[in-house]
Design brief:
disordered N terminus
Length: 274
């Protein structure tokens, strides 16, 4: 039993959940580069290209963040109703179409619609909210570790991609980078989302990649361990029983002695008073 429990704690194979988390990490890294942390690199080029003031250009990027926060309840309902895979698919399509419109925008309103209604809503619902729900579904014991991997992948991906994007904007145009983002969402991220699974139960597994057979073995091992602890504690208590009997006998004798002494002392006191 102990060897089985040790195998469950330290599996030799890489569980399916961790392999799928690798795909999610790539998706999060690309989304973080093109949208989440890479949005600021578009500010000055878009302002100059569309002849906007700094306030108007900044307003769209700021409202896009607020829109993502307000859409949280809707995204939560979509994930519960349709699953993370379908939610991420819709989000990737919206973000890809949005970057195409964004890269070809020639007016303020086209830029605002593309970035707020398509890019921000699609990327936020799919690759921030839905990926967090996916990690919580697939991991239980190692949930914090899996969430850390997801966060690190976003930071690492953006730290690699953003300098490349800045050089491309300097060499070509921000529109080139926007079209490149659209290709990344539609040609890379969208196919990767189709390889994911909504839940471990859909493929006959449990959270953390444990199979039902392994779960039953672990439960049997836990029950056996508790039974051993109970038997050991019972044996230890039976070993202490003679000591308890001796202590109880001494207390009983002391109590009987006091009952004999107290009446005699009372009789002596009555004799002296008479």
């Amino acid at each position: 039993m102990s060897s089985i429990a040790s195998t469950l704690r330290h599996p030799r194979r890489i569980a399916l959940g961790w392999r799928l988390l690798g795909l999610v990490s790539v998706i999060v890294a690309l989304n973080s580069s093109f949208f989440e942390r890479g949005a600021t690199i578009y500010l000055i080029p878009v302002q100059a290209s569309l002849n906007l003031s700094r306030a108007r250009a900044s307003l769209i990027f700021s409202l896009a963040r607020s829109e993502g926060a307000m859409g949280g309840p809707l995204v939560g309902y979509a994930v519960d109703r349709f699953g993370t895979k379908k939610t991420m698919t819709v989000g990737a399509i919206l973000a890809g179409i949005g970057f195409i419109i964004f890269g070809t925008a020639s007016s303020f309103w086209a830029f605002a619609v593309a970035y707020m209604l398509f890019i921000s809503f699609g990327a936020t619902m799919a690759f921030q909210d839905a990926t967090s729900a996916w990690v919580n579904t697939w991991f239980n014991r190692f949930r914090v570790r899996a969430m850390a991997v997801r966060e690190v992948s976003g930071n690492l991906g953006s730290s690699i991609m953003i300098p490349i994007m800045v050089m491309l904007i300097a060499a070509y145009s921000w529109r080139t980078v926007a079209i490149m983002a659209a290709v990344a969402y539609l040609a890379i991220i969208l196919p990767l989302t189709q390889m994911l699974k909504d839940s471990p139960e859909s493929v006959g597994l449990l959270p953390d990649g444990v199979t039902p057979e392994e779960e039953s073995i672990a439960r049997e091992a836990a029950v056996a361990s508790r039974e051993d602890q109970y038997r050991n504690s019972k044996n230890n208590s039976s070993d202490r029983e003679p000591d308890r009997h001796r202590v109880g006998l001494k207390r009983h004798l002391l109590f009987e002695r006091q009952k004999r002494i107290i009446p005699s002392q009372q009789a002596i006191a009555d004799t002296k008073s008479n």
